[in-house]
């Protein structure tokens, strides 16, 4: 059987394929309130290791939290699985669409439980894709994965650390600018 690999950066030591995260916080393609009320579960993954890294880094920079120990999850999806590919051209070719619209689309697909995963365009990198994997789909158990340690380059974590300090005062503004120049 042939597989398609997708990738996910996750906190080391947690059950990172439970899909519980979509009931806690909104994602671009999932509404946490509806997922919680209807007991829906989903996992986000990316088409490449680099995109997975950028997607997780964006989350770290958005929430400005210390970087925990991480792992790279390589998720193997059999190529025989049908996929639901979101066609944003159906919205007049305009991308990105509003988060409200994308959350509605993704959550509806999770509710219908017809597809194991939804292939969707990345908001961070044009012409790259993420995957919303439906943990409650009957064929989810056929997915295999492996994990390996993952760390960001020290320059990236230094920028993130400076952002943490920036919250404490303006004196770090210049240091952040300098970090991006090098």
Supply the number of structural domains.
Answer: 2
Q: Mean of residue pLDDT?
A: 80
Radius of gyration: 17 Å
Low-confidence stretches: none
> The biggest beta sheet, please?
4 strands, mixed
Which shape, going by the Cα principal axes?
Answer: globular
Q: How would you sum up this structure in a few lines?
A:
The chain is α+β, with helices and mostly antiparallel strands. 34% of the residues lie in helices and 24% in strands.
Write the layout of secondary structure elements.
Blueprint: E1 3-11, H1 21-24, H2 32-37, E2 42-46, H3 49-63, E3 70-78, E4 84-85, H4 99-112, E5 117-121, E6 129-134, E7 144-150, H5 154-166, H6 173-181
Parallel strand pairs: 4-5
Antiparallel strand pairs: 1-3, 2-6, 3-7, 5-6
Helix pairs in contact: 5-6
Please describe what this structure looks like.
The structure is a single chain. The chain is of the alpha+beta class and 182 residues long. The chain folds into two domains: 3-151, no CATH class; 152-182, no CATH class. Helices cover 34% and strands 24% of the residues. It is built from six helices and seven strands; from the N terminus they run E-H-H-E-H-E-E-H-E-E-E-H-H. The strands form two sheets. Strands 2-6-5-4 form a four-stranded mixed β-sheet. Helix 5 runs antiparallel to helix 6. The relative contact order is 0.21.
